[in-house]
Amino acid sequence: MILETSEHTQTNELVFSATDKSASLANVLHNHINATYVDSADFSKVDEAELDTWIATAARLGLDYQVVHDELTSNLGLVPEAAQQRIAETMRRYFPGYAGNAELVKFHPYVVPEPKVFDESQTLDLGDRIGIVQAQMILPRIVVIDNFLDRAECEALMREAQPRLQRSGVVEAGTGNSMVTDYRTSEGMFFDYEENPVVSTIERRIERAFHWPMACMETMQVLRYRPGEEYKPHQDFFDPADLGTPRQTKLAGNRVATVVLYLNEPVRGGGTTFPDAGGLTVQAKQGRAVFFSYCVPSADRRTLHAARPVLEGEKWVAVKWFRRGGVRRIKGRLLSLSALPAI
């Protein structure tokens, strides 16, 4: 995609994705435009909000930039320059952290969740509070943010989760089923979307911070690690080479990012380490968030990570995984921006 030069953005060559599904997605989007905008060759008659949603959804799902550009020119009658400008403006509005970060785009050429921390500011506007950016790197893309949660929110999540904890599982590569293994020895549970006011507040804060709709996130998981418990090095995305991956990705696409929220501080141990990032270890601190993204499900994103064993005390975390697309129903309300198929 070509982004116009702006205060935070240089001109860069981008693509939404280079997948072999562009053609089938293009047909879906083509039909959507024809059904919505039939007899509306005059661009002034097109619903502006719906068009922006369509462009943003296409980007998030991974549709090739040229396909989107051609739809705007051939079906809506925009001149090429106007189509380019409209796409760029929509990208900056829907994905300001990503589209505005020229350095990030250089290494991560596919749209992903991203906080707006590309300037010199060390703070992040979370809506109802201010996060403090403690550290970040481009490859792997990791951002450490303090003050993401307050003490009361952390304690409420631990209190509500404790009676529902069960042994954590992992996804078995060959089948896509969940299985218990010594590779991951924590206990965990899942809150439903907006299950209670605290969960809802945190979900909305995550949505605002990383510019990704809650409809494209998994439900919040809370985990407890007691002394000796750990999660050995692993990737959060589903490996395309695994036979069980289609079962995990057919409805919502693959994972593209993770945010881990620390709910307490163990006495010793329990950090989150990234072996392919020079051995970086993020120490657990109450209220801290560590965010990392992986625009493609590949080890070259360097997001291999591990929950180091707790040596003394307990460690509690909450986790949210972001998906490429998909539909999520939240308390009966369809919150997805689109029912288009996910990559």
Provide a compact summary of the structure:
With 343 residues, the chain is of the alpha+beta class. Helices cover 28% and strands 22% of the residues. The chain folds into 2 domains: 22-107, no CATH class; 123-334, Sandwich (Jelly Rolls).
Provide the fold topology:
Blueprint: H1 22-37, H2 48-61, H3 65-74, H4 80-94, H5 96-99, H6 102-107, E1 123-125, E2 130-137, E3 141-146, H7 151-161, E4 166-167, E5 170-171, E6 178-179, E7 187-190, H8 197-210, E8 221-225, E9 231-234, H9 245-249, E10 255-262, E11 268-269, E12 272-274, E13 280-282, E14 289-293, E15 305-307, E16 310-312, E17 315-323, E18 329-330, E19 333-334
Antiparallel strand pairs: 1-2, 2-3, 3-14, 4-7, 5-6, 7-8, 8-17, 9-15, 10-14, 10-17, 11-16, 12-13, 12-15, 18-19
Question: How would you portray this structure in words?
Answer:
With 343 residues, the chain is of the alpha+beta class. The protein has two domains: 22-107, no CATH class; 123-334, q2cbj1_9rhob like domain (Jelly Rolls, Sandwich). Helix content is 28%, strand content 22%. It is built from nine helices and 19 strands. The chain has helices spanning 22-37, 48-61, 65-74, 80-94, 96-99, 102-107, 151-161, 197-210, 245-249, and strands at residues 123-125, 130-137, 141-146, 166-167, 170-171, 178-179, 187-190, 221-225, 231-234, 255-262, 268-269, 272-274, 280-282, 289-293, 305-307, 310-312, 315-323, 329-330, 333-334. A nine-stranded antiparallel sheet has the order 1-2-3-14-10-17-8-7-4, with helices on one face. Strands 9-15-12-13 form a four-stranded antiparallel sheet, with no helix packed on it. Helix 2 packs across helix 4 and helix 3 crosses helix 4 (80-94). The longest helix is centred in the first third of the chain and has 16 residues, at 22-37. The chain is globular, with a radius of gyration of 20 Å. Residues 1-25, 32-43 and 329-343 have low confidence and may be disordered.
